[in-house]
Recover the amino acids of this structure.
C-alpha cells in the first residue's frame, strides 16, 4: 500500500513507524502507582518524531524520598493559611443512662511478665501504665506539660473505671430487686394455694368421714342400700374432682361400699335379676374409676357383630384397681356359683341377658374369665352331647345367642356345631323332608364349604329321588317327589338347582309332551293348560333360571311345531334332544353362578378350586366331592359329571394349581378343556 521502511504510515507519513508495543505493569499495581511510567520507549520516540515535548522525568521511577519532599512542600504551602478552629462537642450522660449502658466488665488481658528497660536498670512493673508514668522526659515546650497531661489522663481513667464499676453494681442491684419482687409474688401465691388446698382437704376429709359414718350405719342395717352414698359421691366428683384424682379417693369409695355390696350380693340372683345393681354402677362410673367401654382399640376385628382386640404387644400385668378387685372378689364368685349350679345351655337367654347387662362394667380379664371358665365349657359339652333325635332344643339354640359376644372364640364354639350339621346331612334321607332350621346355618359356613357340603350329601339324594320316584302322568300326577326337591330351592345355588331340573325333570316332561303331541288329533287346548300348570308349579325365581326357562321354551317350540305339522305331526314331529350342550340358553345357564352372600368381616378366598368349579359349571357339568381320597397323594377326589346321581363322570383331584386325572394306572395333570371333554364321555 505504498509504505516504505523507515517512514510512517499514511499518505503523508505521519503515522507510527514501528508496531505498537506494550509495557507490563507489576502485579497488583494500579494506574501510575508509585510513579510508575506508563509510556513505552516506542511511544516516547514516536512523540519526539512528531515534535512533541517529552520529559525525561518520566523515565525515572518515583522514590520514597520524593514523596516525602512533595508532602513537605505541600505543608509549607499551607503554613501561611490560618488554621480553622474545630469546636469540640461534649455530650453529658445521666447516671441512669450510664447504668443502662453499663455492661459486663471485660476480662483483663494477661500479658504475662512486663520488664521496663527504658531506664538505666531494667525493672519489673505490674502494668503498661507504670511504664508510661516513668517514661516522660523533660521538654522545653511550655505547651506540652506531659506530666500534668499524664496525671490528668490517669485520674480520668480511674474515675471512669470507678463510675463503670458503680454502674454495673447498680444494674446488678436492679436485677436483684426485680427477682426478689417476682419471688415474693410467687411465694405469696404459693402460700395462698397451700392455704386453699388445706381448706379443700379439710372439706374432703369431712365428706370422707361422712361416707365412713354412713358405711358403719349400713353395716348394722337389715336391708342395706347403696343409694344413700350417691349425694356424697356426687359432691366428691363435682366439687373436689382434682383432689379425687390426685389422692385416689376411689379407694375410699370402694372400701366404704364393699361390705354393703357383699351383703347385697349374698341375696342376689344373677340369672333372675341381672340388672339389679347396674343403674347405680352406671351412675358411679366415674367415682369407681371404670374404664370407658366405648374406647376403640387401634387393632380389632369384627365377627358376627362383636369387636375383638388383636394385640401383638406383650401383655403387661397391672395391679387391679379397687373397683376391679371388688368385682373379682365379690361379683364374680356369685356369678360363678349361679352359672355352674343354676344355668343350662339349653336355655341360654338368662346368661346372655346377664352378660349384656354387665359387659360395659366388666374389665377385659373378668370378661375372659366369664367366657373361658364359665360359659364356653358348658356350651362345648352341650354341643358335643347334642343329638338330633333326643335333644329337646335345636342345635342353633345352644350356639347362636353367643355369637355376637364371643369374638375370636368363634371357631371354638362353631367347630363342633359345624361337624354336627355335616353329620346330620350325611345321614339325612329325602323321606325325612326338609330339615328344621337348616337355613339358619347357611350364614355360619363359608360359601364354598356350604355348597360343597350340599353337593356331597344332598344333591345326589335329590337327583335319585327325581330319577327313581318321579313320573310325569297327566291323568294322575304325583307331585310329592318334585315338591321334596323344591323345598331346597333357597338353600341350593341357582346353578345346581337349574342343572338338577335340566337333567332329571325336563327329559321326562318333554318325552311325555312329545307322546301327547304325536297322538291322533290331540287337544291343543288341554296341552296348553297342562303346560301352564307345570310352569306355574315353579316359583318365579326358578322360572327365571336360564336352564329352566330353556326347558319350557323347548316345550313351547315342540307345541308350535306340532301345530304347524298338523296331521303329519304323528310321523314328522322330532323327538326332543335331551343332551344338547351347545344351546345358547343352556350355555348361559351353565355360566350363571350364584352370587355369594357376603357376611360382615368375611371374604371368600379365590382359589384354584373355585376357578375349576366355575369352569365346570359354565360347561353344564357338576363338580362334586366323591367322598374318597387318592391313594398316593392323599388328596380328596372330585367327580366331574353331567348328572347329580354320583355315578359315572371323571374322578380328579387338585394339587399344585393343576387338575390330575387318571391315565392308565397313574394320574397326570390335564387341562380344563380335557377335563370337560372326558367328564362328558365317561358318563
Amino acid at each position: 500500500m505504498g509504505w516504505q521502511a523507515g517512514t510512517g504510515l499514511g499518505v503523508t507519513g505521519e503515522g507510527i513507524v514501528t508496531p505498537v508495543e506494550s509495557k507490563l505493569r507489576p502485579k497488583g499495581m494500579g494506574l501510575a502507582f508509585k510513579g510508575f511510567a506508563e509510556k513505552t520507549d516506542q511511544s516516547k520516540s514516536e512523540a519526539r518524531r512528531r515534535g512533541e515535548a517529552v520529559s525525561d522525568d518520566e523515565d525515572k521511577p518515583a522514590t520514597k524520598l520524593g514523596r516525602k519532599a512533595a508532602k513537605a512542600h505541600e505543608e509549607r504551602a499551607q503554613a501561611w493559611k490560618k488554621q480553622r478552629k474545630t469546636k469540640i462537642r461534649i455530650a453529658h450522660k445521666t447516671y441512669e443512662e450510664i447504668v443502662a449502658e453499663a455492661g459486663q466488665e471485660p476480662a483483663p488481658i494477661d500479658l504475662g511478665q512486663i520488664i521496663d528497660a527504658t531506664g538505666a536498670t531494667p525493672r519489673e512493673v505490674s502494668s503498661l501504665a507504670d511504664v508510661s508514668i516513668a517514661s516522660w522526659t523533660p521538654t522545653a515546650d511550655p505547651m506540652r506539660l506531659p506530666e500534668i497531661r499524664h496525671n490528668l489522663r490517669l485520674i480520668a481513667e480511674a474515675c471512669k473505671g470507678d463510675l463503670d464499676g458503680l454502674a454495673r453494681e447498680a444494674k446488678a442491684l436492679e436485677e436483684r430487686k426485680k427477682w426478689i419482687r417476682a419471688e415474693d409474688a410467687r411465694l405469696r401465691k404459693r402460700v395462698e394455694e397451700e392455704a386453699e388446698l388445706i381448706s379443700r382437704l379439710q372439706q374432703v376429709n369431712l365428706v370422707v368421714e361422712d361416707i365412713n359414718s354412713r358405711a358403719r350405719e349400713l353395716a348394722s342395717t337389715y336391708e342395706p342400700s347403696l343409694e344413700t352414698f350417691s349425694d356424697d359421691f356426687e359432691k366428691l366428683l363435682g366439687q373436689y374432682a382434682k383432689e379425687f384424682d390426685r389422692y385416689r379417693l376411689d379407694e375410699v369409695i370402694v372400701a366404704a361400699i364393699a361390705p354393703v355390696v357383699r351383703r347385697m350380693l349374698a341375696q342376689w340372683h344373677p340369672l333372675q335379676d341381672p340388672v339389679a345393681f347396674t343403674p347405680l354402677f352406671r351412675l358411679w362410673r366415674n367415682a369407681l374409676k371404670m374404664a370407658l367401654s366405648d374406647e376403640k382399640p387401634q387393632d380389632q376385628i369384627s365377627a358376627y357383630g362383636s369387636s375383638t382386640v388383636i394385640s401383638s404387644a406383650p401383655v403387661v400385668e397391672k395391679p387391679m384397681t379397687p373397683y376391679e378387685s371388688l368385682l373379682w372378689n365379690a361379683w364374680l364368685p356369685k356369678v360363678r356359683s349361679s352359672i355352674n349350679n343354676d344355668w343350662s345351655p339349653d336355655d341360654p337367654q338368662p346368661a346372655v341377658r346377664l352378660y349384656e347387662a354387665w359387659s360395659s362394667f366388666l374389665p377385659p380379664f373378668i370378661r375372659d374369665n366369664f367366657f373361658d371358665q364359665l360359659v364356653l365349657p358348658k356350651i362345648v359339652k352341650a354341643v358335643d352331647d347334642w343329638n338330633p333325635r333326643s335333644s329337646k332344643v335345636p342345635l342353633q339354640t345352644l350356639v347362636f345367642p353367643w355369637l355376637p359376644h364371643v369374638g375370636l372364640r368363634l371357631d371354638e364354639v362353631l367347630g363342633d356345631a359345624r361337624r354336627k350339621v355335616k353329620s346330620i346331612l350325611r345321614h339325612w334321607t329325602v323321606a325325612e323332608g326338609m330339615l328344621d332350621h337348616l337355613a339358619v346355618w347357611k350364614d355360619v359356613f363359608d360359601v364354598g364349604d356350604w355348597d360343597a357340603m350340599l353337593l356331597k350329601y344332598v344333591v345326589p339324594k335329590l337327583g335319585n329321588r327325581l330319577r327313581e320316584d318321579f313320573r310325569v302322568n297327566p291323568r294322575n300326577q304325583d307331585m310329592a317327589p318334585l315338591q321334596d326337591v323344591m323345598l331346597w330351592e333357597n338353600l341350593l345355588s341357582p346353578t345346581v338347582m337349574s342343572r338338577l331340573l335340566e337333567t332329571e325333570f325336563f327329559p321326562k316332561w318333554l318325552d311325555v309332551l312329545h307322546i301327547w303331541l304325536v297322538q291322533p288329533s290331540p287337544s291343543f287346548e288341554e296341552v296348553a293348560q297342562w303346560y301352564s300348570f307345570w310352569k306355574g308349579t315353579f316359583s318365579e325365581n326358578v322360572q327365571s333360571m336360564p336352564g329352566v326357562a330353556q326347558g319350557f321354551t323347548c316345550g313351547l317350540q315342540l307345541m308350535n311345531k306340532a301345530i304347524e305339522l298338523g296331521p303329519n305331526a304323528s310321523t314328522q314331529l322330532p323327538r326332543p334332544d335331551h343332551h344338547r350342550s351347545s344351546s345358547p340358553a343352556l350355555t348361559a345357564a351353565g355360566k350363571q353362578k350364584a352370587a355369594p352372600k357376603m357376611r360382615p368381616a368375611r371374604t371368600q378366598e379365590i382359589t384354584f378350586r373355585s376357578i375349576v368349579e366355575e369352569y365346570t359349571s359354565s360347561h353344564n357339568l357338576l363338580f362334586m366331592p366323591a367322598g374318597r381320597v387318592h391313594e398316593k397323594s392323599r388328596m380328596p377326589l372330585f367327580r366331574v359329571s353331567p348328572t347329580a346321581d354320583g355315578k359315572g363322570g371323571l374322578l380328579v383331584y387338585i394339587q399344585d394349581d393343576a387338575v390330575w386325572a387318571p391315565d392308565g394306572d397313574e394320574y397326570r395333570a390335564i387341562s380344563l378343556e380335557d377335563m370337560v371333554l372326558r367328564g362328558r364321555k365317561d358318563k
